[in-house]
TrEMBL record:
Keywords: Hydrolase, Metal-binding. InterPro entries: HD_domain, YfbR/HDDC2. Pfam families: HD_3 (PF13023). Transmembrane segments: none annotated. Residues 7-170 form the HD domain. GO terms for molecular function: 5'-deoxynucleotidase activity; metal ion binding. SUPFAM superfamilies: HD-domain/PDEase-like. This is Hydrolase. GO terms for cellular component: cytoplasm. It comes from the Bacteria.
């Protein structure tokens, strides 16, 4: 129960991306739920061998570390080494609230997602990078303008990850996003 109560705090972590209607920032709890739904709906976009049940579990857990470490916008200015250390410490603390076997299982899923090496993690990371793009597209590029995102940075930080895990989804996104980077 301590873990479940602690996980509720994720609802208070505000992200740089707004909800689709642009009325307010999305919180990380909403983001995690939405990504799990993305995985269910877009399962047909996953490469062969991807286990959607594991992807959903990863996506529900992946941002819990933000309770302690905060959200770091990928186009923002931050120290990636310090952020990674803060997230590791947060993972130790938060997953440590669970019984040992469950803590090890959840922590392993989180670590796998962060490493982005397995087919499940590659697809999960692609969805994690794609979902904010959909929100920004619905807000006429507002998030990209707010952060001064340029084409090369977008293609490197977002495009490469989405294309690697869900190429058809990337093509769909890029045909809509390209006009903001001309």
């Amino acid at each position: 129960m301590a873990f479940l109560v602690e996980a509720d705090r994720l609802k208070h972590v505000l992200r740089a991306t707004t909800v689709v209607d642009g009325s307010r920032p999305e919180n990380s709890g909403e983001h995690s739920w939405h990504l799990a739904l993305y995985a269910m709906v877009l399962a047909d976009q996953a490469p062969e061998g991807v286990r959607i049940d594991r992807v959903i579990r990863m996506l529900l857990l992946h941002d819990l570390v933000e309770i302690d470490a905060g959200d770091t916008p990928i186009h923002g200015d931050y120290d990636p080494i310090a952020q990674a250390a803060a997230e590791e410490a947060a993972a130790d603390r938060i997953f440590g609230l669970l019984p040992p076997d469950q803590a090890a299982d959840f922590r392993a899923l989180w670590t796998e997602f962060e490493a982005v090496q397995t087919p499940d993690a590659i697809f999960a990371k692609a969805l994690d990078r794609a979902q904010p793009v959909v929100h920004i597209l619905k807000n006429e590029g507002r998030g990209w303008r707010d952060y001064g995102v340029e084409r090369d940075g977008f293609l490197r930080l977002v495009g490469a990850r989405v294309d690697r895990g869900a190429p058809a989804l990337w093509r769909w996104l890029w045909t809509r996003a390209e006009r903001y980077f001309s």
